[in-house]
Design goal:
It is found in: Membrane. This protein has about 500 residues and is mainly α. Helix content is about 65%, strand content about 5%. The strands form two sheets. It has a two-stranded antiparallel ribbon. It has a two-stranded antiparallel sheet with strand order 3-4. The longest helix is centred in the N-terminal third of the chain and has 41 residues.
Length: about 500
């Protein structure tokens, strides 16, 4: 693995991205300074990628997190991690080029940025953290999307047959449907062609967040509404035991910390931006837009969701309104979640595709199966270039992730552990270390010391959240029955 991560995986993978030299020696204007296809990304498209990656369906669990932490600690931790995420994302944006953030050589992936600035064993650690996290997220999204699809079927079943009807539905057919859709979408060549899907997914995330928010407000102002909330959240001896309170608080802090993370794909998003203006400046603006928008939705959904359900807030606050009425609105929200996760899956798997395809192109540059493009004329759309290796490998990846999702339906608990393991190195440690190396910040200077304090504090958060995830995972494993329909109410 070491040599794989050490190598520059920036091989030009697609024929259409190569620079074309004219007979007089001039280079065509439809390519960038590195000979790749002209980048067209803007603050809007980068912001859409970030929102698609960040908001996720994790927003639905924030009411539960607020219930564990209470009115004071909950909002403070939300705002604190939004600031940390934005700050470290600005550091990472400056690492897209090296040695200088404006005129240096482009780094096409996070791993390559770490190789350029730090090198050594840190490159392998970054690669394992980044790609392990991305694989985990795509498996988790397969499970979550199938849960939303099943929720629609069950809602309609209850509506037709009555609230006491047995409406147990298996997730597995819906995981297969999700996988088939992803196999088709995975033929989108690269991140540059993904903007329309990210914008659609971002709109869907706003839609279901607003539905949940609207239903929560309606519940809060409804006649006879009374739930218990408190400054410190769930009450020991009333809602939970002392040990449950501790573990749930740790898990809630971890959920909030990981809910903001998009560092795994930041460099890949930045590589879609056109310049001028300088990519790092545009990326910082996009990060501000993404993190601000996300924080606004998180605070609203978390606090108003907590006000609606109190200390008994469910893990998914959409299910707290029941599968009953208004069934059509809950259905629409769950459809929006599924569509959003379809787009989010692609945002997270594209860096994996790029890494493997770049690696294979370097290893076997003369292999026609890996490198050849075959043009297919599609009426109304023009010529689409098919690469047989790309089609086969991406299909295999989607199938494998779907099978893992079927075998481990409690994978979201594992995902919490993966999030804990990757949050510190990818969101905090590497951006800070690369910033110190790039700016040549002296050891033990004031700036160096406070950056190290921030780094160590986030390491502690990751460790305690990992402990909470492991405890939750052991509880899930005790009740696990393979290939049995799961109840997600």
């Amino acid at each position: 693995m070491a040599s794989e991560f050490e190598k520059n995986s920036s091989t030009t993978m697609y024929v259409e991205e190569s620079a074309e030299v004219l007979e007089n020696g001039q280079v065509q204007k439809n390519v960038d300074d590195d000979g790749r296809e002209k980048r067209t990304g803007t603050v809007l498209t980068a912001g859409a990628h970030i929102i698609t990656a960040v908001i996720g369906s994790g927003v639905l669990s924030l009411a539960w997190a607020m219930a564990q932490l209470g009115w004071v600690a909950g909002p403070i931790i939300l705002l604190l991690f939004s600031f940390i995420t934005y700050f470290t994302s600005t550091l990472l944006a400056d690492c897209y080029r090296s040695p200088g953030p404006v005129t240096g050589k482009r780094n096409y992936s996070y791993t390559e940025a770490v190789r350029s600035h730090l090198g050594g064993i840190k490159v392998q650690l970054c690669g394992i953290s980044q790609y392990g996290n991305l694989v985990g997220v795509t498996i988790g999204y397969t499970i979550t999307a199938s849960i939303s699809m099943v929720a629609v079927v069950r809602s309609n079943c209850f509506h037709k047959k009555g609230h006491k009807a047995s409406c147990t539905v298996s997730n597995y057919p819906y995981m297969i449907i999700f996988a088939v859709i992803q196999i088709i979408l995975s033929q989108i060549p690269n991140f540059h062609k993904l903007s329309w899907l990210s914008i659609l997914a971002a709109v869907m995330s706003f839609a279901y967040s607003l539905i949940g928010l609207g239903l929560s407000i309606a519940k809060v102002v409804g006649v006879g509404h009374h739930v218990r909330t408190s400054v410190t959240g769930t009450v020991v001896g009333v809602d939970v035991s002392a040990s449950q309170k501790l573990w749930r608080c740790l898990q809630a802090i971890g959920d909030i910390a990981f809910a903001y993370a998009f560092s795994t794909i930041l460099i890949e998003i930045q590589d879609t931006l056109r310049s001028p203006p300088a990519e790092n400046k545009v990326m910082k603006k996009a990060s501000l837009v993404g993190v601000f928008t996300t924080t606004l939705f998180y605070v609203l959904c978390g606090t108003i969701g907590y006000a609606a359900f109190g200390n008994n807030a469910p893990g998914n606050f959409l299910t707290g309104f029941g599968f009953y009425e208004p069934f059509w609105l809950i259905d629409f929200a769950n459809v929006c979640i599924a569509i959003h996760l379809i787009g989010a899956y692609q945002v997270f798997c594209q860096p994996i595709y790029r890494f493997v395809e770049g690696l294979c192109s370097e290893r076997w540059p003369d292999n026609k199966f890996i490198t050849s493009q075959h043009g297919i004329n599609i009426p109304g759309f023009g010529v689409y270039y098919v690469n047989y290796f790309r089609m086969l490998w991406r299909t295999a990846y989607v199938v494998v992730t779907a099978v893992i999702a079927m075998i481990f339906p409690f994978f979201n608990a594992i995902l919490g552990l993966i999030g804990a393991a990757s949050f510190y190195p990818l969101t905090v440690y590497f951006p800070i270390e690369m910033h110190i190396a790039q700016r040549k910040i002296p050891k033990y200077s004031f700036t160096w010391i406070w950056l190290q304090i921030l780094s160590w504090a986030c390491l502690i958060v990751s460790l305690v959240a990992a402990a909470g995830s492991i405890q939750g995972l052991t509880q899930d494993v005790k009740t696990y029955k393979p290939f049995k329909p799961q109840d997600h109410e």
